[in-house]
């Protein structure tokens, strides 16, 4: 029997070691040093006589690389000592690496990497073992081969490691920029915050959170429900920087201070320079599968977690903007230019003011014309802004452009922030519910209030109110028509079904033309794309009592529709509503029937031989008489909407 040992070849190692980001490659060496309990790590960019970058040196005072670790870690891909260790050996700090791949990152930077390392050997029974040193060298053209040799220590009497990258593959001018140091700081500032005794230097500059961080805040813990698990250890830290950063990133780690990978933040935060850090054991799992290094990771569970983080960040920066606006708002109040008076009257106005205050902050901060204007002009401008937000909060960019000449970039930033936090939707939904409650109160008043019900007419009053509020019969209808003849109704039905009627008229049995007050229609989700539901509504003035005449009128509509091909040859359901407030005793038996819902006067099902197999159309006539039950549809709907309004107010 022959045993074969799997060996990693050059092409595989190149793919595993390559990265397009030179700073990411360098950061791996820093993490390796920190995992070795280094208290000081320094990246030195060494230059030649002409000022060009000649070599990169990473020096640390960690525990060094022992002979055993050199054989295991440099002789294998994976199987690193870190995989089974949860903390560093001496100081008990969180460990970054797990796979032992970091050493190969030099491949993206240089042709050759050489480690000079000194470590203190462990001698049983001895308090302190001797120092031993070794040199380790890897060439980019033979990543699978590593040369280890004894060497003199470049350190005095302490352990440590120096990695030198030579024969660089590019000039790497970007590594010397202030942007590079800024990005480097965003990676390691949380680690320094977590372990204050650690010093990390980059090209002569120290990573000092006290100098670079404006504000650091931990967001409330997040719980994310995935398809097969619940993540309940997700913590998010936001760091606001004093200086500008070239990218806004969300960094992911298994524990505080550790960065395993990053993704673009895609969070709108006007005027803020920030980085976010998300910590959870889940991210360690993702990193163990080498997925966090993908720039656009779209794994479903990860996308869900990332969306929760982004939502939390958007809410945080909305609150920060509102906080920053307080001083400006107070100045405007002192000048008499603030268009609101007193405290908010309700939660709807409170939401409006939040949007208004943020928009006002944007205008005052970025519009010189506004900031220098007189108080009277400011008040006029802000009054216009107030009304615009009240009527159309979802289109803030247009509002800012129309009301004041705010730069286009700032318009987009602030409107995007408000849209992402759904403040506009909250205001819109709250006002929508409030408007509907008002409409229902009006409807209830004209039906039941003795002062109005005798005067309200069907034509021009009641039908106009219902025409503008067809949602009373449901939100699902995509066809809505006011008072129309049955011929026009059937033309619209034929159009929706993709048929032609050739101008054929629809009449009642006596040949007269029939007109209905409201017609609604919708598509029904079904395997048959032609399945439809239609509503014909006949309204009667509140002072009229329903009798046989009115019921016969609607039954004539039913008979006329049932003879039409659009009814016979398609899978359609028709409901005919006769709506009034009272009815005569003579029709009570048709309203209350055994084995039928209350108010259902008749049902009819017609199957046509010309229709497709299993296809049929149905018609049902329903009487909706509000006087038969005081808890009528109008009242109950008012109560439900009021309840929804209270829920919005509690948000």
Helix content, binned percent? 25-40%
Q: Regions with pLDDT < 50 over 5+ consecutive residues? A: 2-6, 420-427, 606-614, 625-635, 644-651
Strand content: 15-25%
- Radius of gyration, CA atoms, in whole angstroms: 37 Å
Instruction: Describe the global form.
Output: elongated
Largest sheet: 8 strands, mixed
Please state the average pLDDT score.
76
User: What is the CA–CA distance across the termini?
Assistant: 72 Å
Task: Look at the helices and sheets and give the structural class.
Answer: alpha+beta
- Number of beta-strand segments: 24
Please state how the strands of the largest beta sheet are arranged side by side. Answer: 5-4-3-6-2-1-7-8
Instruction: Domain count, please report it.
Output: 4
Helical region count?
20
Region (Disordered): 591-621
Pfam families: HATPase_c_3 (PF13589)
Biased composition (Low complexity): 601-618
Protein name: DNA mismatch repair protein
Question: How would you characterize the overall build of this protein?
Answer:
The protein is an alpha+beta fold. It has 4 domains: 10-176, Heat Shock Protein 90 (2-Layer Sandwich), CATH 3.30.565; 209-302, no CATH class; 336-421; 452-630, no CATH class. Helices cover 39% and strands 22% of the residues. The chain contains 20 helices and 24 strands. It has an 8-stranded mixed beta sheet, covered by helices on one side. Strands 9, 10, 11, 12, 13 and 14 form a 6-stranded mixed beta sheet that branches. A hairpin with a 5-residue loop joins β1 (40-47) and β2 (53-60). It is elongated and about 115 Å long. Residues 591-621 are annotated as: Disordered. Pfam families: HATPase_c_3.
């Amino acid at each position: 029997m022959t045993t074969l040992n799997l060996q990693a070849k050059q092409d595989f190692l190149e793919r595993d070691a390559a990265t397009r980001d030179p700073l990411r490659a360098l950061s791996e060496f820093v993490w390796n040093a920190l995992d070795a309990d280094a208290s000081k790590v320094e990246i030195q960019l060494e230059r030649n006589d002409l000022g060009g970058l000649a070599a990169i040196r990473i020096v640390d005072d960690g525990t060094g690389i022992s002979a055993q670790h050199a054989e295991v870690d440099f002789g294998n891909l994976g199987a690193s000592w870190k995989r089974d260790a949860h903390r560093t050996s001496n100081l008990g700090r969180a460990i970054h690496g797990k796979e032992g791949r970091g050493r190969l990152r030099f491949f993206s930077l240089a042709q050759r990497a050489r480690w000079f390392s000194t470590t203190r050997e462990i001698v049983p029974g001895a308090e302190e073992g001797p120092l031993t040193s070794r040199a380790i060298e890897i060439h980019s053209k033979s990543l699978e081969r590593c040369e280890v040799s004894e060497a003199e220590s470049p350190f005095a009497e302490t352990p440590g490691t120096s990695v030198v990258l030579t024969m660089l593959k590019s000039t790497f001018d970007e590594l010397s920029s202030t942007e590079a140091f800024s990005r480097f700081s965003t990676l390691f500032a949380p680690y320094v915050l977590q372990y204050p005794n650690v010093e990390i230097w980059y090209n002569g500059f120290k990573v000092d959170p006290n100098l670079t961080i404006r504000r650091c805040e931990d967001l409330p813990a997040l719980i994310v429900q995935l398809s097969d698990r619940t993540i309940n250890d997700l913590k998010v830290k936001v760091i606001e920087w004093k200086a500008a950063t070239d990218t806004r990133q969300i960094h992911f780690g298994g524990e505080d201070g550790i960065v395993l990978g990053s993704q673009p933040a895609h969070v709108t935060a006007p005027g803020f320079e920030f980085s976010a850090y998300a910590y959870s054991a889940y991210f360690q799992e993702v990193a163990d599968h080498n997925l966090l290094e993908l720039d656009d990771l779209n794994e479903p569970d990860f996308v869900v977690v990332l969306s929760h983080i982004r939502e939390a960040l958007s809410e945080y920066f909305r609150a920060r903007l509102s906080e920053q606006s307080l001083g400006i708002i107070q100045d405007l109040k002192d000048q008499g230019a603030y268009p609101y008076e007193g405290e908010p009257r309700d939660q709807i106005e409170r939401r409006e003011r939040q949007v208004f205050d943020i928009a006002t902050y944007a205008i005052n901060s970025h519009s010189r014309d506004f900031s220098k204007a007189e108080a009277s002009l400011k008040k006029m401008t802000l009054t216009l802004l107030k009304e615009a937000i009240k009527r159309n909060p979802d289109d803030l960019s247009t509002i800012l452009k129309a009301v004041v000449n705010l730069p286009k970039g700032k318009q987009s930033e602030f409107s995007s922030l408000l849209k992402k936090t759904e403040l506009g939707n909250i205001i819109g939904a709250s006002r929508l519910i409030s408007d509907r409650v008002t409409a229902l109160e009006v409807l209830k008043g004209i039906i039941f209030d003795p002062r109005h019900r005798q005067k309200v007419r069907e034509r021009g009053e009641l039908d106009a109110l219902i025409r503008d509020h067809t949602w009373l019969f449901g939100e699902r209808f995509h066809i809505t028509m006011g008072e129309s003849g049955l011929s026009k109704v059937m033309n619209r039905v034929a159009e929706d079904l993709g048929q032609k009627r050739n101008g054929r008229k629809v009449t009642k049995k006596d040949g007269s033309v029939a007109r209905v007050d409201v017609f609604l229609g919708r598509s029904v989700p079904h395997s048959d794309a032609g399945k439809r539901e239609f509503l014909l509504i006949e309204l009667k003035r509140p002072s009229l009592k329903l009798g046989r005449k009115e019921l016969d009128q609607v039954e004539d509509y039913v008979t006329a529709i049932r003879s039409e091909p659009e009814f016979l040859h398609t899978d359609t359901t028709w409901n005919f509503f006769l709506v009034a407030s009272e009815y005569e005793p003579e029709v009570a038996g048709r309203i209350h029937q055994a084995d039928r819902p209350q108010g259902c006067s008749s049902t009819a099902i017609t199957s046509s031989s010309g229709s497709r197999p299993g296809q049929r159309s149905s018609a049902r006539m329903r009487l909706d008489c509000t006087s038969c039950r005081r808890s009528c549809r109008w009242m109950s709907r008012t109560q439900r909407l009021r309840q929804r309004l209270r829920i919005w107010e509690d948000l």
